[in-house]
Structure formats: C-alpha cells, structure tokens
C-alpha cells in the first residue's frame, strides 16, 4: 500500500470509517480479496424515504468489543429531517440517512 485515503475519519466516534487504498502492486484476487465497483458519481437526491440500503462493517458488538466477523444489515433510508426528529429521543448515533 503506497497511500491510504481517509480524509474525514474521526477516531473519537469512528465517523467516516471508510478508506481507499492505493496499491503499489496489484492485489492478488482470491475468494477473500475481490474488486468492488464504485459509481462514477452518486446523487443522493435520487434516494427517497423507504429506499432500502445495506450497511456493513466490523463495529462494536453487544459486549462493546470489536467484532472479528463482518456484519451487515439492510435498513430503510430516511431523510435527515425525519432522522433528527426520531433520533433526538433515542440517541445521537449515526443511522443511515440521505447524507
């Protein structure tokens, strides 16, 4: 790896915990190392409330320890306005919103 791009990552709350790696040499593709297609441009204005999306990661488990297994969940997308109204009662964690 020659560079790691994580410009907005926050160690405080793990916000923006996605990284792009620039490889010095091409990776060997295996059953565990695969390519991913990224959109040339993403327009979040085309998402509507109720659109389904996937979130995946190695977040904290029920014991507040980092999970060693990649976990995924399908969630409905909601507007920031609806999220703010609902989440003010529950918590300040980051659910899946339009941005």
Low-confidence stretches: none
How many angstroms does the end-to-end distance come to?
29 Å
Beta percentage is 15-25%
Q: How many strands appear in the DSSP assignment? A: 4
Largest sheet: 2 strands, antiparallel
Mean pLDDT: 77
**Roughly how many Å is the radius of gyration?**
16 Å
Strand order within the widest beta sheet:
1-2
Helical segment tally? 1
Secondary-structure element order, as H and E? Answer: EEEEH
User: What class would the helix/strand composition place it in?
Assistant: alpha+beta
Helical proportion, percent range: 10-25%
> What global shape is seen?
extended
Number of domains: 1
Q: How would you describe this structure in keywords?
A:
Trypsin_dom, 99 residues, serine-type endopeptidase activity, Peptidase_S1_PA_chymotrypsin, 1 helix, single chain, Peptidase S1 domain-containing protein, disulfide bond, alpha+beta, 4 strands
């Amino acid at each position: 790896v020659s560079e790691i791009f994580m410009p907005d990552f926050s160690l405080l709350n793990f916000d923006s915990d996605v990284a792009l790696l620039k490889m010095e040499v091409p990776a060997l593709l295996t059953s565990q190392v695969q390519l991913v297609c990224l959109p040339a441009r993403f327009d979040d204005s085309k998402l509507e409330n109720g659109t389904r999306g996937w979130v995946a990661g190695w977040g904290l488990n029920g014991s507040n320890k980092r999970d060693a297994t990649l976990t995924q969940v399908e969630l409905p997308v909601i507007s920031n306005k609806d999220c703010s109204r609902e989440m003010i009662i529950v918590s300040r964690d980051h659910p899946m919103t339009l941005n």
